[in-house]
Amino acid sequence: MSSKILESASVATPALPSTAPAIEMIDLCKTFGTLRAVDHLTLTIQRGEIFGLLGPNGSGKTTTLDMLSGLSNPTSGEVRVMGYDIRRDAQSVRQLLGAVPQETALYEELSAWANMNFHANLFAVAHKKERITTMLELVQLLDRKDSPVRTFSGGMKRRLALARALLHDPQLIYLDEPTLGVDVQSRRAIWDYIRSLRDQGKTVLLTTNYLEEAQALCERMAIIDHGKLVVAVDTPAHLKQIYGGGVVELATVSPITAVEALRSLPGVKEVKQEGARLTITTEENHNVVPQIINLVSQESTLSDITVREPTLDEIFLRLTGMALRD
Q1: Does pTM top 0.90 for this prediction?
Q2: In 10 A of CB 96, how many CB atoms?
Q3: What DSSP assignment string belongs to 196-219?
Q4: pLDDT digit string (tens) for 266-293?
Q5: Could you give the CA distance from residue 109 to residue 147 in angstroms, rounded to a whole number?
Q6: What's the CA dihedral at 182, 217, 165, 176 to 10 degrees?
Q7: What's the N-to-C CA distance of the chain in angstroms?
Q8: Topology classification of domain 23-239
Q9: Which residues contact 153 (CB under 8 A, 6 or more apart)?
Q10: Which of 33, 105, 128, 172 is the least crowded, having the fewest Cβ atoms under 10 Å away?
Q11: Where in the chain are all domains bearing CATH 3.30.70.100?
Q12: How far apart are alpha carbons 165 and 162 in whole angstroms?
């Protein structure tokens, strides 16, 4: 990753309160008529971390980001960004903030350079020609600087939106579904950019419904649904440990009938049967696998056995009772 990621920026930003967290949300609520999109959400995000806000579409993630950005006023509750109250100090917050929304909001008929130049003027970026060149080089779009954005692929637009968000050297970056609709190669490149931000001491708030993305990037995360915390803030690894246990996947030559007997074994949380395949969730640190294998093999020949950790998708399903909604 290029060491140029945050060089050449000399944007005048307000002095930061020295000890305040990056983001504080206290009893944050947002209603639209009878719909409560965010419901008494309380979270603290520390400086210098990549924090994941996970949940299905419609869970309140984007509405939360809109309030943190000053684009939408909370119905009730408090929001502080880098120590600034978002209601009283919205301008100071905007100088500290870079954002990549779900919709990239680029000017499609303008070139990549013109899009960056417009943003640089808005934020009074010093040495803007050098800074724009550096950022376009970083996202590997310098050779397309004069091309209209409408000719770009989805991944290229995402990379340009990220470069634009970083142009004024923000202290805090909001990324709303940053890899939505991009190919695998572009996704990996964007992940590298996000990790480099942490290495530069920036704070990143990432919303996603890709559990793989959260696990790859986030030091801590919170899962929300219907605007409420489903589970308290934790690390992906600890979430797996606390809520996951182990997963035993078995394939048999023919379906077995001893499903209830499996469910009654000490240490077994859940048993799912699909034809001749079984997926059994076990409690953490409970070695019930030998008993499972013994019981299943009494009825049918085992053709395959896999013991693994649960995925974050499976944990989300257990916590919310539903799969991630598209």
Answers
A1: no
A2: 22
A3: HHHHTT-EEEEEES-HHHHHHH-S
A4: 989 889 999 999 999 888 767 888 999 9
A5: 9
A6: 60
A7: 32
A8: Rossmann fold (3.40.50)
A9: 183, 186
A10: 33
A11: 246-308
A12: 5
